[in-house]
Write the structure tokens for this entry.
Amino acid sequence: MKRSYFADIPRIAFEGPQSRNPLAYRFYDKSRVVAGKTMEQHLRMAVCYWHTFNWNGTDVFGAGTFQRP
């Protein structure tokens, strides 16, 4: 049996930087083309945000692993 825990929540949409909606993309527009690819192609949401983009790689499981300037 397939369950959908978020069936009552509508798809999150791009509404622009002036949006007051807490469940809206303000800067991520999946169809916007950047350097020949859509943002959706560049920023695959399967990437764990905090592991990839946050400071030195620190997450809830331990110390950072990235050595950045």
Summary: The chain has one domain: 1-62+65-69.
